[in-house]
Amino acid sequence: MADTLHRHAVIGNAGNFWQHSTENGFDLTHPSFPGASDTPQSLRIETTTTAITINPARTALVIIDMQNFFLSESFGRTRGAGHLASDALLTHAIPAARKAGMQVIWLNWGLTEEDVVLMPPAVKRAFGFEAHLDSGNDAIAGEEYFKESPDGIGVDKFGNKRYVGGHQLLENGKDGRIYKGLGSQCGDVVLPSGETVDAGRLLMRDTWNASLYPPLAEAYQQGLQSRRPDVWLHKNRMSGMWGATTPCQEYLEREGIRTLLFAGVNTDQCVSGTFTDSFSKGYDCVLLSDGCGTTSPAYATECIEFNAARTWGFVTSCGNFASGVDQMLDSEQVADLPKK
């Protein structure tokens, strides 16, 4: 027999709860108490598993690591999933967030000197590291081991001078060149215009390599003039929400933001790391699948999307998000029409 009885539920606690009904899906608007109608705007979005309703005023579009180092052709990046994600963000998600009055957050690698000094080996290894030829002497000793040396050899995460076979790894850079790890000098790169620029130290703040990929940099500059100006936040791990607190978490708490729409690169690394840490800290997490990209094999994305949709939160597309915003605004216009 078909289950035709409608049900409703309240999930969570008095300070952080969702509501669910078999008719309308999940309500993530966070009213003052269950059943209250004190949310000025409600945005309904169709996801891969269920409909969700969110409060635009308490939602942020979080765009992760869309930086020159990961996307620029000056670093040898051929057009791929990250660039397709950029297109989807520029065409659908960013304009939709602006129309809905949502906060747009650009969450990027942006290291300080202290970050580099204190970086644990597991994180450093992910971006390559510096090796030295065996010399049979103790020319390098003590604290000098931890400083970049002009005679050092940049190697990949497995200690190899060059990555051999398969697709060029994302972090290897132009022509398979290996850097000496986070904070190391990237050297000069040639822009599409033919201009040569100093790319700066790897993923350090205020360097060319850590700047936004140009089409997105333009969107960010435009966003600074919007009614709810864009925000740029730094992170110093693959997750922007790791540990007791981070600049991103402090900002979200200060602004009362509870729902996060995630996009950026790489889907299975920095995006998923931030997504899962946010899930564990009690935020509502929605993955914009086509607003994300990775150079990893397809199964890596499939794993993240499967768990994001069925355990950690929800998965939708930039187009579905934009459609939901348009429907919300159309409904508001109809409601504002004078009654006959």
Question: How would you describe this structure to a colleague?
Answer:
- By secondary structure, the chain is an alpha/beta fold.
- The protein has nine helices and 15 strands.
- It has helices at residues 68-71, 81-100, 113-118, 121-125, 214-223, 247-255, 267-280, 298-312, 318-336; strands spanning 8-13, 16-21, 25-28, 43-46, 51-54, 59-64, 103-109, 129-131, 153-155, 188-190, 196-198, 231-235, 259-265, 284-293, 314-316.
- The chain has a six-stranded parallel sheet. Strands 1-2-3-5-4 form a five-stranded mixed sheet. The protein has a two-stranded antiparallel sheet with strand order 8-9.
- Helix 2 runs parallel beside helix 9 (318-336) and helix 7 (267-280) runs parallel beside helix 8.
- The longest helix is centred in the first third of the chain and has 20 residues, at 81-100.
- The radius of gyration is 22 Å and the shape is elongated.
